[in-house]
Amino acid sequence: MKPTALPSTSNAARPALGGLPEHLPSLDGLRGLAIVLVLLHNLDVLAPAVDRPLAVALLKETLYVGWIGVQLFFVLSGYLITRGLLASRGQPGWMRDFLVKRGLRILPLYWIALLLLTVVLPLLGVTLPHPSHFSTAWLWLHLSNWTTPFEPGGGPLPHVWSLSVEEQFYLLWPLLLWRMGLRDVWLLCLVLIAASPLARLLMLNLGLPQEAVYTFTVSRIDALAAGAALAVWDAGRALHGATRWRSAHLLRLAIVLLLLTAAFSGGFRRLGDAAQIGGYTLLTLSCTAIIAWAILVDRAHARGALQGGASRWLRGRVLASFGRYSYAIYLFHKPVHDLIGLPLLRQLTGSDSSADPAVALLYLLASGTLCWAIGWLSWRLIERPALALRRHWLSRPVPAPAQIAQAPAPAAPPLDRATSAVARGRADAARRRDFRAPARPWGILTRARPVRSR
Asked: What Rg, from alpha-carbon coordinates, does the chain have?
């Protein structure tokens, strides 16, 4: 049976994607894993392992590799944002609702953090290291990824460049998807994935700093586009109800791609020609396979299938809590490191680093715990109250939990079993005719004969 064709431009009366649960717990675990990796990299105070035991050298490399957590964040964002847009576009006020949701999720905490770190603390005589040579307006406008590479030491907040990349994606991506069908979105994603390494190659040949190639939006668009392509694939799976892929296949594929990435980039190097031209894209594909595996894990868990140790660990409470608080942890971990952690370390050891692995691990544990506590407070005092405002501003207000519990169930007309089966079959056939998506990802590129009405 040939895969069916997809509408390419029609945006009217587009049905919502059925079969997609609102919440995927494994993705919370992956988000938690991503922030833990970032903490390993940015809170690393272990001195360079020169002529050190092999175990210490391996520990240093493990801490360094944590930078790949940012790439995992990008692919996750591309998937989640595109999945939500595909499910809601065409509905009244969908664009406004999307911007309201993203604004309430990102802006309140971000503005409070900037106000505290760039206005209040300097007035109290506390300044972040590496003062900016540019205006802080770049931070407020979510454009700091274009200036951070040219700042001494990356500027006062060198880590928020990735938030700027995501905000730019949130603003531009809905405009591109507005009049596009699934097949066209898939093609656009493939073009962006292919163009991004070429853009990095061009920038390196033009002599741009490697840090600029690391932070510019065009350099990281392949990760966001890969996540978006995964959302298209998942939409096709949901509509057709089957796939030839199994979670074990995807997990093995992810491991193979990670090994290829390590070999191609010289051990997950962050900078360098080979790492930045092809290594970033291989890493993107690895993260995409991991997320696809996690999606299938959640689908299997919803069906009651038994899960292995890796999937149970991913869905565990520890990673889920880090995932829930990951935004605040990411936003504040560098200021905590610069303003609290390093001054205390200097008092204790007289240096910004330590040759003792035990000291480095203790520092990582203490700083990470403090960042988690800040995330916990931020979620309860800022983020969750801000999200609760959605019900007042969305076109279709979000009901309060108490309203949901008290709302009476809608009365259904009495149908016998045979009539119900026929009705469900007709509704399912109509949905598939109106909004087609192939079970195989490559099937999106194939047009099939139109379905004849009987």
From this structure: 24
Asked whether the beta carbons of 31 and 318 are under 8 A apart, the reply is no
Instruction: Judge contact between 153 and 130, C-beta under 8 A.
Output: yes
> How far from 280 is each of 214, 219, 249, CA to CA, in Å?
9, 9, 22
Report residue 86 as tokens: 């595909």
**The two three-digit tokens of residue 299, written as one number:** 């689908």
Residues near 285 by beta carbon (within 8 Å), at least 6 away in sequence:
226, 257
**91: alpha, beta or left? (left if phi > 0; alpha if psi -120 to 50):** beta
Question: Helix-strand-coil percent breakdown of the chain, rounded to 5?
Answer: 70, 0, 30
Give the N- to C-terminal CA distance of the chain in Å, as an integer: 18
Handedness of CA 200, 206, 210, 216 (dihedral sign): negative
Query: Do 71 and 30 touch, CB atoms closer than 8 A?
Result: no
66-101 pLDDT, tens digit per residue, is: 999 999 999 999 999 999 998 888 788 888 889 999
Looking at residue 6, its pLDDT comes to: 35
> Tell me, what amino acid is at 449?
R
Q: What are the pLDDT digits (tens) for 194-222?
A: 999 999 999 999 999 999 999 999 999 99
Mutual orientation of helices 280-302 and 25-42 as an angle, nearest 10°?
140
Whole-number Å distance between alpha carbons of 347 and 49: 23
d(CA 92, CA 182) in angstroms, rounded, equals 20
pLDDT confidence of residue 424: 52
C-alpha dist (Å) from residue 436 to 79, 184, 268, 451: 19, 12, 39, 11
Q: Where are the alpha helices (DSSP H) in 179-279?
A: 182-205, 210-215, 217-240, 247-264, 273-274
- CA-based torsion, 210, 215, 221, 227: positive or negative: positive
Query: Residues 343-387: pLDDT tens digits?
Result: 999 998 888 888 889 999 999 999 999 999 999 999 999 999 999
The yes-or-no verdict on residue 276 having pLDDT over 80 is yes
Q: How far is CA 356 from CA 45, 58, 346, in A?
A: 10, 14, 14
CA-closest candidate to residue 213, choices 274, 169, 260:
274
The token pair at 373 is 């506590």
Q: How far apart are CA 128 and CA 148, in angstroms?
A: 15
Q: Is the CB of residue 321 less than 8 Å from the CB of residue 35?
A: no
**Dihedral angle of Cα 232, 237, 240, 243, to the nearest 10 degrees:** 140
Q: Judge whether 181 and 10 are in contact, CB under 8 Å.
A: yes
Q: Is the pLDDT of residue 21 over 60?
A: no
d(CA 41, CA 214): 16
